[in-house]
Amino acid sequence: MVTVQICVGSSCFLRGAPRIIDKFQELMAEHGLSNRLILKGSFCLEQCTKGGVTLFIGDELLTGVGYEDIPVLFESKILPAVKDVSR
Ligand code: FES
């Protein structure tokens, strides 16, 4: 199981966290990953000054993430991680 934790603190919320969550949910459904990926919200991860939205994919902290980055992150980080844990 891979966990994606998305900050929904006030800065990240205003910078588009809800749209990013929607996009993750859409991609999860598209790839049939609802039983292999957990999406979680989080309080402020204290990275507000980095711009964009802050999130963790597994243990990896990513800052300055924008809505337009999600498809690339999904391909480059989520799909390989999901394959790794299903082996
Ligand atoms: S509100 Fe997201 S890092 Fe602070």
Key structural traits:
87 residues; 4 strands; globular; binds FE2/S2 (inorganic) cluster
Structural topology:
Elements: E1 2-7, H1 10-14, H2 17-30, E2 37-42, E3 53-57, E4 60-65, H3 70-86
Parallel strand pairs: 1-2
Antiparallel strand pairs: 1-3, 3-4
Residues 7, 9-12, 44-48, 54 line the site of FE2/S2 (inorganic) cluster.
Query: How are the strands of the largest sheet arranged?
Result: 2-1-3-4
Number of helices: 3
Q: What global shape is seen?
A: globular
Number of strands: 4
Q: Helix fraction?
A: 40-55%
What is the count of structural domains?
1
Distance between the ends: 11 Å
Mean pLDDT: 94
Bound molecules: FE2/S2 (inorganic) cluster
CATH class: Alpha Beta
Instruction: Work out the strand percent.
Output: 25-35%
CATH homology superfamily = Glutaredoxin
Structural classification: alpha+beta
| SSE order, one letter for each helix or strand | EHHEEEH
Q: What profile does the largest beta sheet have? A: 4 strands, mixed
What integer value in Å does the Rg equal? Answer: 12 Å
CATH architectural designation: 3-Layer(aba) Sandwich
Low-confidence spans: none
CATH topology heading: Glutaredoxin
Summarize the structure.
This protein has helices at 10-14, 17-30, 70-86; strands at 2-7, 37-42, 53-57, 60-65.
Structure description:
- The chain is of the alpha+beta class.
- The chain has one domain (2-86): Glutaredoxin (3-Layer(aba) Sandwich), CATH 3.40.30.10.
- Helices cover 41% and strands 26% of the residues.
- It is built from three helices and four strands, in the order βααβββα.
- The protein has helices at 10-14, 17-30, 70-86; strands at residues 2-7, 37-42, 53-57, 60-65.
- Strands 2-1-3-4 form a four-stranded mixed β-sheet.
- The longest helix has 17 residues, at 70-86.
- It is globular, with a radius of gyration of 12 Å.
- The mean pLDDT is 94.
- The structure holds FE2/S2 (inorganic) cluster (FES).
- The site of FE2/S2 (inorganic) cluster (FES) has 11 residues, from helix 1.
